[in-house]
Amino acid sequence: MNDMSQPHGAWTPDGETPPKITETAVIDAICTVFDPEIPVNIYELGLIYTIDILDAGKVKVEMTLTAPACPSAQELPEQVKEAVMGVAGVTYCEVETVWDPPWDPSRMTEEARLQLNMF
What we know:
The chain is about 20% helix and about 20% strand.
């Protein structure tokens, strides 16, 4: 049985083409990263601002944290980078932490608000 959840390359007369990186695959990878203090993944929390899929398997992610003094300020961006690097076809990932616009609870998905009883 073929696993269609992971894109794969195709064979051409010039050799195999690299797998196509999809935004869905990158988001699915990011959804495996959780804030250690909040039982919701960081994508649902609204901490991911942009995902840019560039040429040659490069991905750039802009993210924020719930507060500048967040105790996970060093580890969360590194966990995002590791998760994205696990996506088929990704050769490089840059994660930039940004503070503008500042995060607030309105950025959370409805699902996250329900999980945290913030409705």
